[in-house]
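Hi all, posting the design record for the shared folder.

TITLE: backbone redesign
STEP: 1 of 1
STRUCTURE INPUT:
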């Protein structure tokens, strides 16, 4: 327990220090304020209200997972954990810090258990974004004549056949694979993996439908924010087109690992490319991306920093 306390303390210090450095060095607040001032203020207020809904949905999703996976029912502690995780995620590549820092407030829980719970929480959201984005990305590729419908069908047919082959081979040699796993993976780690696997299998009732529904509404909220921001800069109401663009941007952000701080670069690059592809000024996509980042990540990170300082 003493070593765990030292590790938790170190994580707190690293999270707080990294967040402060990121907020002071990487975020140009003057530029973001300038962008907001040039947009339709009424639309900006709508986006800000959707940020509140966005955070509420994230809390509800994380609360469900904490109740089911971790046995944590303290809503205030769950909320603080969420904000601390968001803060840690923006300055760590691939948001790795979020998986660790969410456990800071759960001192009686193993960090690996909290990380696994975070994986379930975020994994479902990413999966929904990936499926919707993949469908729309295929439509985009066909619309722009980058590929034909036949090529798309052949591509997925090859993937299906390869996956079927891998599954078949795995079934045939599963005995040898078990021996290889026993040789490579220590016994205590194998028991831990089995524990998590059976935990997933034991999930029942309305947990899965509930968390999928919340994750879907969260996805629609986030992409609607992006669409509204593009509208606020163009002044031309074409919500379905902007919503389409927002899903494409999110899909690229999911597919390309964000190795930079706060996913800076991937998100903005995708926003510039897709807005330009639909004859919209690339600066509009870039500006919308920055404001989304400010509302959905920077502002909540201040709350995470506050909760850390209180501890």
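Okay, here is what came back for every position:
SEQUENCE:
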């Amino acid at each position: 327990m003493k070593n765990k306390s030292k590790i938790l303390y170190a994580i707190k210090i690293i999270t707080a220090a990294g967040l402060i450095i990121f907020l002071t060095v990487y975020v140009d607040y003057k530029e973001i304020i300038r962008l907001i001032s040039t947009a339709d203020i009424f639309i900006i207020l709508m986006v800000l209200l959707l940020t509140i809904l966005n955070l509420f949905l994230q809390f509800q999703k994380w609360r469900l997972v904490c109740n089911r996976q971790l046995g944590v029912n303290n809503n205030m502690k769950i909320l603080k954990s969420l904000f601390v995780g968001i803060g840690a995620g923006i300055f760590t590549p691939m948001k790795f810090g979020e998986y660790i820092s969410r456990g800071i407030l759960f001192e009686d829980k193993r960090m690996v258990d909290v990380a696994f719970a975070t994986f379930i929480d975020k994994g479902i959201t990413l999966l929904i974004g990936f499926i919707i984005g993949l469908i729309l990305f295929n439509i985009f590729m066909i619309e722009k004549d980058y590929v034909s419908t036949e090529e798309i069908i052949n591509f997925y047919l090859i993937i299906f056949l390869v996956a079927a082959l891998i599954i078949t081979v795995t079934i045939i040699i599963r005995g040898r694979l078990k021996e290889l796993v026993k040789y490579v993976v220590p016994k205590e780690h194998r028991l831990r993996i089995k524990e998590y696997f059976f935990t997933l299998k034991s999930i029942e009732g309305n947990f899965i439908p509930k968390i999928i529904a919340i994750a879907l509404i969260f996805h629609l909220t986030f992409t609607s924010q992006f669409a509204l921001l593009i509208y606020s800069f163009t002044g031309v109401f074409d919500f379905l087109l902007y919503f389409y663009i927002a899903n494409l941007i999110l899909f690229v952000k999911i597919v390309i690992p964000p190795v930079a701080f706060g996913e800076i670069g991937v998100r903005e690059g995708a926003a510039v490319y897709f807005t330009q592809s639909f004859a919209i000024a690339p600066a509009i996509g870039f500006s919308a991306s920055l404001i989304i980042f400010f509302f959905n990540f920077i502002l909540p990170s201040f709350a995470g920093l506050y909760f850390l300082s209180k501890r």
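COMMENT: The CA atoms of residues 199 and 307 lie 31 Å apart.
Let me know if anyone wants the other runs.
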